[in-house]
Structures are given as C-alpha cells and as structure tokens.
Amino acid sequence: MNSNESGLNKPVFFASVVIIFIVTILGALIPEQIGQLFTAIKSWLNSTLSWFYMLTVGAALIFCFVLMFSRYGDIKLGPDHSTPDYSYGSWLAMLFSAGMGIGILFFGVAEPVMHLVSPPNADPQSIQAAREAMNITFFHWGLHAWGIYALLAISLAYFSYRHNLPLLPRSIVYPLFKDKIFGPIGHVIDTFAVVGTMFGVATSLGFGVTQVNSGLSYLTGIPESFGVQFILIAVITTFATISVVMGLDGGIKKISNLNYRRKQLKPHK
C-alpha cells in the first residue's frame, strides 16, 4: 500500500467521532461525575502503573541514544538519495511553534512553581521541594520528553518512507502483525491514536486559551470569562485549521518561520 494513499478511513473516522462525541456530551451533562471518574482512573494509574510509565519513558530515551550512536543512526528515514526538505532553521521553528509552543511556554514556568508550592515528597516551599520541582520539570520537558517524540517520529518515518507503508500509527506494529494492520487491528490502533491526540490537543488548547485570555486581560482589561475564551478557541482553531489545510509548506512552515523571525528581531531588554 502506498504511503501517499489518501481518503477517508470510515471505521477509524466514525469510531473516533462516536467516542469523542460520547465523552464530550457526558462531560457537558454530568461534569462532576465524569470528573470523579477520570480522577479515580488517574489515581489508579498512578498507584498501579507509574513504574511502567517511568520504565517506558527511560527505555525510549535509551533506545534513541543507542540508535544515534550506533551504525543504525546512519540509516536515512527516506530513500537513499533523498535530501532534507527543510533547513535547520525552518525545522526548529516548526518544532517549537507548531509542536510545543503552548506547553513549553505555560508549563515551563507553571510546573516548577506548582511543585514548589505543592511537592509530592517534601515540605512546601523548602529547598528539597525546589529540587524535586526542578527534577520533575526536567523529566517532563527535558530529554525524556524528546525521547518519546523522537521514537514515534522515527518509527513512523522508517516504516512509511523505507517500507512504503501508510504514514499511520498502525504501520509501527507491522513487524508484529504484518498485513493484518490493514484490518480491524489497524483500525483499533489508529482510533486509539486519534482519540488520544484529540483529547491531548484539547487539553493543550484549553491551557493555552486561559493563558491568552489572562494576558489580554492584563494588557487590555478584557475580562477573563467563558465567552472570551470561547471566541479565542474559535479564532485559534480557525487559524490552525487553515494552516493544516494549506500543508507544511503553505501554512505551518510560513507561520512558524514568521514567529521565529519575530522572536529574533524582538529587542532584548
């Protein structure tokens, strides 16, 4: 199957829509009950599988380092004759502007402060709390986080551009399931990825909108309210949709480069 094959995958699309719709409606109708349910699930995951999470993240980072410094690091994630489509400047601009902009701007400051005030295993606002806060922040935003991103990107690129498989999460498990990835197994994997990405982006967008609303309120006096945040979500989503529809070259690259150059030209105080 050609990795450039396009079209609507109906099983994945409709399954994802149904799951997202159900969760969204339940969250709107019975927010307290849904909040309690997700809190209970989160507590169970933290108490039962936290070790597995730490182990997986560490293994992903180690695997990336092994690839980088071994002979496998010389394998191109594309045809042998291929050359990079983007310069390092454009690549970095897209990486930070389109990939981690809201998260790293908000949590890069908020997370260490939050853990300093309410540390997991220390007295609040103590030296030990400060150390724990920075350790947790480095774990979330340091090399470990990049290891997860790199592992997914390497896997998708390798199987898509070296083995001509679809640029979809299902392609990563091709060595295990072979052509079965084009059936129900692949649909389940892609649906899980779509739902997880959707709610992950929604969380990031929610934090970003409250941040923008707070900044506008501080600068212009615009009230911090649901109405203002709803408008901000609509505007941000519209620009993001236009950028995605225009593609990497037409939208994301140009906006990211513009943002990168604006930061370079901004005078330092």
Molecular structure report:
By secondary structure, this protein is mainly α. It has nine helices and no strands. The chain has helices at residues 10-29, 31-69, 88-99, 101-117, 127-141, 143-162, 174-177, 184-220, 226-265. The termini are far apart. The model is unreliable at 1-5 (pLDDT under 50).
Query: What is the residue-averaged pLDDT?
Result: 83
Q: N-to-C SSE series? A: HHHHHHHHH
Structural class: mainly alpha
Tally the beta strands: 0
Main sheet properties: none
Question: Fraction of residues in helices?
Answer: over 70%
| Strand-residue proportion | under 5%
Shape: globular
Task: Count helical runs.
Answer: 9
| Poorly predicted runs of 5 or more residues | 1-5
- As a whole number of angstroms, the C-alpha radius of gyration is 21 Å
The CA-CA distance between the termini, in Å, is: 55 Å
Nutshell version of this structure?
The protein is mostly helical.
List keywords for this structure.
269 residues, mainly alpha
Give a topology summary:
Elements: H1 10-29, H2 31-69, H3 88-99, H4 101-117, H5 127-141, H6 143-162, H7 174-177, H8 184-220, H9 226-265
Helix pairs in contact: 1-2, 1-8, 2-6, 3-9, 4-5, 5-6, 8-9
